[in-house]
Each structure stands twice: as C-alpha cells, then as structure tokens.
Amino acid sequence: MTQLFYSLFKPTQANLKDEVLSGLTVALALVPEAVAFSLIAGVSPLIGLYTAFIIGLITSILGGRPGMISGATGAIAVVVVALVVSHGVEYLFAAVVLMGLIQIAVGLLKLGKLIRLVPHPVMFGFVNGLAIVIGMAQFEQFKFTTPEGTSQWMSGSPLYLMIGLVALTMAIIKFFPKLTTAVPSALVAILTLSAIVILGGIDTRTVGDLASISGGLPEFHIPMVPLNWETFMVILPYSAIMAGVGLIESLLTLTLIDEITETRGHGNKECVAQGVANLTTGFFGGMGGCAMIGQSLINVNAGGRNRISGIVASVGLLIFILFLSSYIEMIPMAALVGLMFMVAIGTFEWASLKVFRKVPFHDVLVMVTVTLVTVFLHNLALAVLIGVIISALVFAWQNAKMIRTRKHVDENGVKHYEVFGPLFFASAMTFGQKFDPINDPDEIIIDFAESRIVDHSGIDAIHKVTERYHKLGKTVYIRHLNSSSRVLLNKAEKIINVNYTDDDPSFKIVLDEKLTN
Fold first, then answer.
1. Maximum average pLDDT range among 65-69, 214-218, 398-402
2. pLDDT digits (tens, 9 = 90+) for 430-464
3. Where is the signal peptide (predicted)?
4. How many distinct helices (H) and strands (E) make up the chain?
5. Relative to the CA of 411, which of 129, 213, 377, 507 has its CA 20 to 30 Å away?
C-alpha cells in the first residue's frame, strides 16, 4: 500500500521541495481569492475557504491534470448569487450537489473530449479575456470604503504606498529567478513584503481587512431543503449552468497547462474529479468551484508539476484557517495584488497580437469577440460558446462555397456530374442548382468520388434532384458513395429511392420500380 501511494504521488518532473514551496505559494494566493468570491456570491468567507480546501484536495488526488489547482471561482460565484438572494444558502448547497452529479455523468459518458471542438482562436480569446479580468479585478484593492458606505479610489500617500508595494512585489517576482530558482519568487515576494510591512509598521491594507479567516474543520451538512419536484426545478437551471461553466473553465485550463508543461491530461477523468469534488463540498456547506487558471499558473510557474503541490496547497489552506489565521491576516494585500498582476501578464497570449495580419479575418473576429464577452460579461462559458458558434458558422459557410460539379457526356449519351466538396445543410441549395433536368439526357450519373453526404439536408438534396428528373421520366444513378454516405442513404431508404451504377464494386444495383415499369 505504501509503494502504491508513493508511486501515485511521487514527483516525476520536479523535486519534493519545489512541489511543497509552490503549493504553499498557491495556498497564500488562494486566501484573498476565496474570500472575495464568497463576498460576490453573498455567503460567508469561510464557505469560500472551505470550498477551496475540499475541491482543491479532491481534484488534486483524483483529477486528470496533475499540477492544476481548483477551488472557489468567480465564474461560479456570479452564477449562484441570484439563487442565494432568492432562496437562501441551503438551496445553494443543494444546487452544488446536483452540479456534482451532472459533472460526474459528463465524465462517465466520455463527453470531456468535446473540448477538442474549441478552436485555437477561441482559446486565445478565452485566455486573453481571463488575463484582463484577473488584472482588472486587482484594481478593487486600490479603493476604500467611506463611512457613508460608498467606494472611492485611494489618493495621496495611501495610493503611492500601495503602488510602490505592488511594484516592489512585481519586481521581486520578475528578477529574483535571475539570482536563484531554489525558492519560488512569488513566495519570496510575499514573505519579503510581509516582513517590510510588519517590521516597518507600515499602515496598509492586509488580508485581515477583507474578513477573518479563522475557523474550525468543515462539518458534514445535508442541505436543508424540501425533497420534492419544485425544489429540483428551482436548482436545476443553476446546477446545469454551474456544471457547464465549471467544466468548460476546467477543461480549457487543463488544455492550457498541457501546452505549458508539454504533457497531456485526461479530460474525462478531470470531469469526474470535478463532479466528486463538488458533490462532496455540497454536503459540507460549500459554494461549488472549478479549476482556477490564475492559481494553476502560479503553481506551474513555481515548479509544481505533480499532485503533491495541489495537496499541499489545499492542506496548507486548511492549516491557515485552523492555526495560522492571525498570521495570514497580516499579509499585505499589495503583495497578493502584485502577484496576481504578474499572473495576468503571464497569462495573456502576447503572441496573439502578432498574428492579427497573418490569420484569416474571421479568426481575429472570434478571438476579439471571445475576449470582449469574457471581459465585459465575466461569463466564460458564454464567451466560449459564442466563439465556437461563430467558428462553426464560418466553417459551414466556407465549405458551402466549396461544393462544385464537373460535367461531361460520355460516348453512350449519358451525362456525368462529378461532385466536389461536402454535401450538407449549408451546401444543399447550391448542389441543387448545379443540375439541368430539362436539357439533360434520359440518363445521368452523379459521381461522389470526391464528395460525401454529411447530414439529412444532404439526403434531401439528392432526393429533390432525383425527383425532378423522375417527373421528366429520366433516370439518375449514384456512383462512388463512401461508406458513411451509404449508411445515411440506407437509413433514409423509406424517404428516398436511388439507383447505384453496376460498375461500382462497392454497391449493388437498386432498381426504382417506378422508373423500370
């Protein structure tokens, strides 16, 4: 058993020191994020912290992408705030349980591979938009609340002090690796800024100013909601959206970490792990979560490549809550703001700006659209969905224009139509316009050697063409259909009757009784 445990968690690309230190760095960065997302969702800060611990621990152990960090996220918080306001926090817990079940089902049904349908421009737009969102979110720390309860920007000495501390943090993170890589530069920056602020008695905002993070162990809690159909219908829309948002963000983050580490994660395994994590956190009073791209990048950049770093991050967060809350609350927010600014800068795909004039216009349009939707609506799932839809429509339009025919009449007076390009819903009308039933001879052959039938619209297009010839007493033969097209036509034999040529060894002649009588 000991050997099995060691083989599961032993570092393969990084040593144990790097894994532990990167995990501690992530744990420190998780605190303000979890607190902030809890406040967005309208729940207690401890709920967000417990969520980050439970989801982070379970996905680190069971997930399909070692080194990826999961926890409470803003994408989920934005979705659940309406449910909390309208029905209360207990309905939130029930919705998170259902969310977990949906995600487990997606993983078991092997639907995680659908992430392959996300085009590269959508990935660029998603990453760039998320980088901008991460950066913009940090500017909230440059504001303060007046006694009247309004929020105003800092000015004067507090502003200059905040800017100076943030700049110092970013400088340490940027240049410390040039001295040594033995310790993560982000951790050095946090400890250095904390020492300067505490020992120097500098008056600046700290983690404790957000909320207290002191608490006990999370307790098992069955959601106190009526177990009836009405409750199910209340939570189902929220659960479905949370499950979708969570899986999209997790799988896209997995893909990004794959590219950075040049390894390959397992999407379906990650879906199941996310589901188990959310199912568990729902029974321990959690708000639901998913993969966190910012913390994942912090972990990877600090040397975390294996499950140990994620386990250390989640367990470290729990230790902070139980024993070290008073010390963690003394960490200046400027250090964490500087860290997140560096994450935003590192997340942004600067190379994407260089390809604007080198790629098709529609790819640039998709990239910019996804970025803008992510930035202004903060809805990652919607942004990705819009990007995929635009890409799919562009693909369909381009392929619709590719359908064409080459015509000739052989020595027997039979006219041949050689079809090029896929026959599907977007090209069906153009396909029908290629034929001239009135002026064509009594027999024609449609050759699909360079084409294929993709969908029902393609079948219907062939049916309409053969019907037009049939009304004129003429015969249409089909030649060189591939296997997938043949299957489609065979399934549609009740609504279409076609003739195959006898010189194609792949097919038998199918006689149309109406034409032979």
1. 65-69
2. 898 999 999 999 889 989 888 888 888 888 888 88
3. none
4. 21, 9
5. 507
Give the whole-angstrom CA distance, residue 337 versus residue 161: 13
Contact yes or no for 226/94 (Cβ under 8 A): no
Sign of CA dihedral 197, 201, 203, 209: positive
In whole angstroms, give the CA distance from residue 185 to residue 171.
10
Q: For residues 408 and 244, what is the distance between their CA atoms, to the nearest angstrom? A: 52
Adjacency order of strands within the sheet including 415-420? 404-409, 415-420, 443-450, 475-479, 499-500
- In sign, the C-alpha dihedral spanning 273, 276, 277, 279 is positive
Q: What is the DSSP string of 413-456?
A: S-EEEEEES-BSTTTHHHHHTT--TTTS-SEEEEEEEE--B-SH
What's the mean pLDDT in 42-52?
89
Q: Judge contact between 305 and 19, C-beta under 8 A.
A: yes
For 326-374, write each residue's pLDDT tens digit: 888 898 989 888 888 887 887 788 878 887 778 888 888 899 998 998 8
Tell me the one-letter amino acid at 73.
Answer: T
Q: How many CA atoms lie within 13 A of 137 on its CB side?
A: 27
